[in-house]
Amino acid sequence: MDNVQHLVPGKLTTAIVICCYSDKRWDILNKAIEAAARQVPAADEIVVIVDHNPALALRLCAKRFETPVRIVENIHPPGLSGARNTGISVSRGEVILFLDDDAVSDQDLLATLVRQLEDPSVLGAVSAIRPLWETDRPSWFPDEFLWTLGCTYRGLHPGPVRNLIGASMCIRRDVFDHTGGFDSGLGRTAKALPLGCEETELCIRATKALPHGRFVFEPSSGSDHAIPADRATWKYFLHRCWAEGLSKASLSLMAGSGEALASEKTYMTRTLPQGVMRGFADVLLGQPSGLLRAVALGAGLAATAAGFALGRTRAALTRPFTSVPARALEPVE
């Protein structure tokens, strides 16, 4: 297969990279690190990247972990993409499992995803990402929009996928060697509007560079992704949809509308209409919340489309596509 590593018999070396930025997530961050340390079999290394928060880095360095954990400060621009690129630079594993700082992984997560990568055509794999609600789940929240919370959404099926979801994804190091790292212009930052799509852009770029490779969704294992109360609101839901529209606008200029929006077309023409029909069916069965979910589906689509319309114009005028060069990901001692 062109430019894709041929695996030889034997154990793939593995690294787990957890990116963090806020002291406010201290409790869930520790749970995420502890879950990473409990993987069976264990990862060869666990690296925690602190995104431009020296106080948090010092606090982590002072903590005693049962398993060796390296604490490294982000050497790239602030944001999730820069932090992940630092993780790529400082780790050594042939396979890198990226976990969010608020995602608590199953004990067999790493083994399950690495098993997928034993197929040399698989460039990366993503697990099931389950919402762990801090409060009761809102009755109006539709499964089809769980992506707004970084979770697996209704309509995503096991097997090949265009892109991975960042909270719990495993990628070959070879992918970064051939394509460079995550685009820092798309990754989230602590202060900016929650733009995303950096995983999508990377996956599109990777499949162009490695055309016989693919990414897969393997839901037999997964992570519980913490959802705080302030994200279980209409305000956050619509804000996140708007931001996704803005991100997709930038992505469509980088990668072309065909590739950037291929999955979205199926999502809009099949997944969302089916969700609306389920909502109305629930109303007929005496469940009023079905109507609220149908309304949320329409509102989410409208907010995303509005963000895309504005973002497409803004991005075309202000931001040309520039991917992270491979040299930015040279190993760091």
TrEMBL record:
Xref: InterPro entries: Glyco_trans_2-like, Glycosyltransf_2, Nucleotide-diphossugar_trans
Parts of the chain that traverse the membrane: 290-310
- Domain Glycosyltransferase 2-like: where? 16-177
SUPFAM superfamilies, per database record = Nucleotide-diphospho-sugar transferases
- Keywords, ordered alphabetically: Membrane, Plasmid, Transmembrane, Transmembrane helix
Q: What superkingdom does the record give?
A: Bacteria
One Pfam assignment:
Glycos_transf_2
What Gene3D superfamilies does UniProt report for this protein, alphabetically? Spore Coat Polysaccharide Biosynthesis Protein SpsA, Chain A (3.90.550.10)
PANTHER family per UniProt: GLYCOSYLTRANSFERASE, GLYCOSYLTRANSFERASE 2-LIKE DOMAIN-CONTAINING PROTEIN
Protein name, per record: Succinoglycan biosynthesis protein
Query: What organism is the protein native to?
Result: Rhizobium johnstonii (strain DSM 114642 / LMG 32736 / 3841)
